[in-house]
Design brief:
There is one protein chain. By secondary structure, the protein is α/β, with parallel strands linked by helices. The chain has four domains: 138 residues, Rossmann fold, CATH 3.40.50; 62 residues, Helicase, Ruva Protein, domain 3 (Orthogonal Bundle); 87 residues; 82 residues, no CATH class. The strands form two sheets. Strands 2-3-4-1-5 form a five-stranded parallel β-sheet. Helix 7 runs parallel beside helix 9 and helix 11 crosses helix 13. It is elongated. The N and C termini lie far apart (87 Å). The model has no long low-confidence stretch (mean pLDDT 88). The structure holds adenosine-5'-triphosphate and magnesium ion. The site of adenosine-5'-triphosphate has 20 residues, from helix 3 and helix 9.
Length: 419
């Protein structure tokens, strides 16, 4: 059965609530002050980001002080009428049996639109005459709708707990669940949660429940679930991956396609796998990936893609056996791609010149670029006068002349003759 860890490990006492010690103390002091008579502010307004423990703090305090907690959220007090039902409760501090009472209007932001105006107003009215502590909770206390309420309340701000505080909470849970978790793994979850303890606990449960161990590899992919990662992170996951799973996931996070990623791995592997046997294994895996790439090209059977991916990621990651991780080695852009794009441009240029030749020589542009162009190059490099005449005759543009001449000075000499 699925039972959320946020419930299972929900703080029962204030001691277990993580973070915001000052805010919590301010709150406790205010509630305790009721024992000496109705204080100046009859309501406290706790506000702050989601999942930081606002609701839980009120519940834990009621538990610690053995108070009766009347807890409501927006759907319970939408209308003026609904709120007024609490007026009776709010008019007495002690209940019939002597327990003290605290009333919580939770999730005030949930009140929407004009229909709820009555609700907000009714709450303000109750606050003015309340005989027991009223607590309001919202994410944003500065919503214009709450102006009147705010002025009548003791404002208590909850801030996001630090990653260290979240980490402590996660560690506690792992201990109770009997999970040996790498510090790095928990740190990663804590940082990613950005102070939202609820989501941190939810992530932890999704990743660790039922496991004996939780490693960094188990969690690192989480961060990239919803955003694309830079090629460098992806490369690190593959070349330094400890599990096949982790390395394979890298492909989904990469912002380059599989072919490009292949080039990246191929070019960077030697610098990062310095043990020759490791490198040989990695290259073996890459060659297998390449075999399948070829089969896809020939058969268009894209179901083979999974083998390409497995070999080039998991295969490469598992190749690392003897190489020690020492220091930091940078990743560099695949040179083969740079060279390819250079020649692609070059081929385009040759074909353009070939087309000019075709018109004058009555041969195909391709043949012209292959057979005639090399001679043009020799002429353009050695005889500016002849080059100028040919340029005119073939109607070449400056770019083409520069390409054939191969240097700035010769191009200038030719263009001077052209006038
Ligand atoms: N400070 C905390 N210490 C320990 N656990 C916490 C803390 N904050 C949140 N949690 C965990 O997250 C769950 C939700 O917390 P809670 O309901 O108090 O958040 P909230 O601040 O009221 O958020 P929201 O603004 O969304 O209502 C709790 O049940 C608990 O498991
Ligand atoms: Mg809440």
């Amino acid at each position: 059965m699925y039972f959320p860890w946020t419930e299972k490990y929900k703080p029962k006492t204030l001691k277990e609530v993580v973070g915001n010690p000052d805010a919590i103390q301010k709150f406790v002091e205010w509630v305790k002050s009721w024992d000496k008579g109705v204080p100046k502010k009859r309501a406290a307004f706790i506000y702050g980001p989601p999942g930081t423990g606002k609701t839980v703090t009120v519940e834990a305090l009621a538990n610690d002080l053995k108070m009766e907690l009347v807890e409501k959220n927006a759907s319970d007090y939408r209308t003026e009428e609904a709120v007024k039902r609490f007026a009776g409760l709010a008019s007495q501090y002690g209940s019939l049996f002597g327990t003290k009472r605290i009333i919580l209007f939770d999730e005030l932001d949930g009140l929407t639109g004009t229909a709820d105006k009555g609700g907000v107003k009714a709450i303000t009215d109750i606050i003015k005459t309340a005989q027991c502590p009223i607590v309001l909770v919202a994410n944003n206390a500065y919503d214009p709708r709450f102006i009147n309420i705010r002025n009548n309340c003791l404002l208590i701000e909850f801030k996001k707990p630090s990653p260290t505080e979240v980490l402590k909470h996660l560690k506690g849970i792992c201990q109770k669940e009997g999970i040996a978790a790498e510090e790095n793994a928990l740190k990663f979850i804590a940082q990613r949660s950005e102070g939202d303890i609820r989501s941190a606990v939810n992530d932890l449960q999704a990743l660790a429940q039922g496991k004996k161990r939780l490693t960094y590899d188990d969690v690192s992919w989480l961060g990239y679930r919803d955003r694309q990662e830079t090629i460098f992170t992806v490369m690190r996951m593959i070349l330094y991956g400890k599990t096949c799973e982790g390395a394979k996931r890298a492909v989904d996070m990469a912002d380059v396609d599989v072919d490009m990623l292949f080039e990246w791995i191929y070019e960077n592997a030697p610098a990062h796998l310095t043990d020759p046997h490791d490198l040989a294994r990695a290259m073996d895996a890459l060659s297998m990936a390449d075999v399948y790439r070829g089969r896809i090209r020939n058969t268009q059977d894209w179901s083979l893609m999974r083998y390409v991916v497995d070999f080039m990621t998991a295969g490469v990651a598992m190749a690392r056996v003897n190489t020690k991780t020492s220091g930091w080695t940078p990743f560099h852009f695949p040179e083969r791609i740079q060279a390819l794009s250079r020649t692609r441009e070059e081929r385009a240029m040759q074909l353009e010149i070939g087309r000019k030749l075709k018109r004058r020589c009555h041969i195909s542009a391709k043949r012209a670029s292959k057979e005639v162009l090399p001679y043009l190059r020799i002429i353009f490099k050695n005889n500016a006068e002849m080059a100028a005449g040919l340029s005119k005759w073939l109607d070449l543009n400056m770019e083409m002349i520069e390409y054939l001449a191969g240097s700035k000075e010769k191009t200038e000499a030719i263009s001077r003759l052209l006038g």
